[in-house]
Amino acid sequence: MQNATIARLFEQLADLLELDGANPFRVRAYRNAARKIESLADEVGGLIESGVKLTKLEGIGKDLAAKIETIVETGVLPQLEEMREKFPPDVMKMLQLPGIGPKKVAVLVGELGVETLSDLKEAAQNGQVAALSGFGKKTEQTILENVDEVKDAEQRYYLADAKAEADAVVADLLELDSVEKATVAGSCRRLKETVGDLDVLAVAADSAVVMDRLAENPVVVKVLARGDTKQRVRLASGIELDLRVVPRESYGAAMQYFTGSKEHNIVTRRMAQERGLKLNEYGLFRDDEYVAGETEEDVYAELGLPWVPPELRENRREFEWAAENAFPQLIERDDLLGDLHMHTTATDGTASIAEMAEAAKTRGLEYVAITDHSKRVAMANGLDADRLREHWENVRKANDEVDGIEILCGIECDILEDATLDLPDDVLAEADWVVAVLHYGLKQPREKITERLLNAIRNPHVHAIGHPTGRLLLKRPGASVGFDDVYKACADEGVFLEINAHPSRLDLDDVHAAAAKEHGIPIVIDSDAHSVDGFDVLTYGVYQARRAGLSREDVANTRPLGEFRAMLKTS
Known about the structure:
Elements: H1 3-19, H2 24-39, H3 44-49, H4 62-74, H5 78-86, H6 90-94, H7 102-112, H8 117-125, H9 136-153, E1 157-158, H10 159-173, E2 179-185, H11 186-189, E3 194-195, E4 198-204, H12 207-216, E5 220-226, E6 230-235, E7 240-245, H13 251-259, H14 262-274, E8 278-280, E9 283-286, E10 289-292, H15 296-302, H16 318-323, E11 338-339, H17 353-362, E12 367-370, H18 385-401, E13 406-414, H19 425-428, E14 433-437, H20 446-458, E15 464-465, H21 483-493, E16 496-500, H22 510-518, E17 523-526, H23 538-547, H24 561-567
Parallel strand pairs: 4-7, 11-12, 12-13, 13-14, 14-15, 15-16, 16-17
Antiparallel strand pairs: 1-3, 2-4, 5-6, 6-7, 8-9, 9-10
């Protein structure tokens, strides 16, 4: 049971309790517990196993500790299940709408009787939402602008959460002596940034034993369906998982089929047909004669193709690369030598400069840039010119004191709504590294957003554009960007583009990262870490880069610091 999953369960309970009108102190206790658990460097399950008393953690009393232990042991928070029964399923989805918290959802449900997102959309279209006390036209318009996206996003989960659960299920199945193989398939295997459900394939002597094992797994809260070789379950997070037990001779074909994507498989089936073959999840056949299917390599070879990395199976360039036997050598996590986007206690981080550097060093990094917020982000205690210069003195001091890693003076500088930068040029000129970002005004017209980005790119002191669209997956769409102009400007000016590795961002997406590569623009993969354990998300940035077909050479911070510095534009 991952800390993030436990924290999410407490957040959901707090939301439903607030929606139900519970004592505000009780609600706050659950929210504080969620934040505390998510920020822990160690997994809660490991702490319990090692005998650590959870009550020793700040803000965790006996009641909360008991609930955490229950979640770790059973995968379920009973109080949450009870609260879920009190409200229609779409009520939780309404909480994903920007600016719509539990109190407003309670009014929508109580006064308008809405139970589904479709009900809410209809009420907003009819002007009923604006007429409610405390809502108004602006809130109504926000609902109309975002309700369809929330509907589209329903039943989708961050890759980071889904993959952790799927990997845990597979590891547990492999503990059985009767299980020969077990692997994650589907969009999770293709490392898509969000996942709708999970697929696991297994080869086993007795399918019933495998299904019993899955049903008994603590992360499984309900068995939804069960047949002779297929079982569907719901996990504690809410995501549903299909387990299929397949014969050894069909394993490779089933992996190819259930990994997808649909678009990729349409092409492979057509290629099979052109060779007088039939391809399905059971194998590759000529009439009724079995030709291949035990391994994916065998299936692809019979189609005249090399094995295709799952991340690339989207019917983009993989068949072109396969025909030329020229697949890129996809980047690996260990290729990263630097991280150029992180925060400390100077703004909204939870660790000091030295602590962040030491944590980065333990992850195999050789250099970091400390990039606390500029003053526009007042809610994060953003830095003005004087505070920033003082902060950089502390960065330089830490660089002298911490051995084995170089610490650069950086800044995450906001691109303001009027297209100027949040700090003057004479300050930015003193930085080792400037990453310019959009945080506000993301709904401005495409032309204005593009103008803001181009002005930043053309500034002689800006080295990279961070999380270029500003999107938050499953929560907030990104700004509308004129990427063709941005690509040209970055290529002309020598400015990098970032893949922000945080699982809720993964911005650039894989399509735009691939396009940046075509324009010769170096990518940087950064953690945006706000704590010492925040560097672990770099793995997901690497996954995104792999889906874009990026190799080590396409990513600037795979280079030693001297080579990296040589790539930076000079003002």
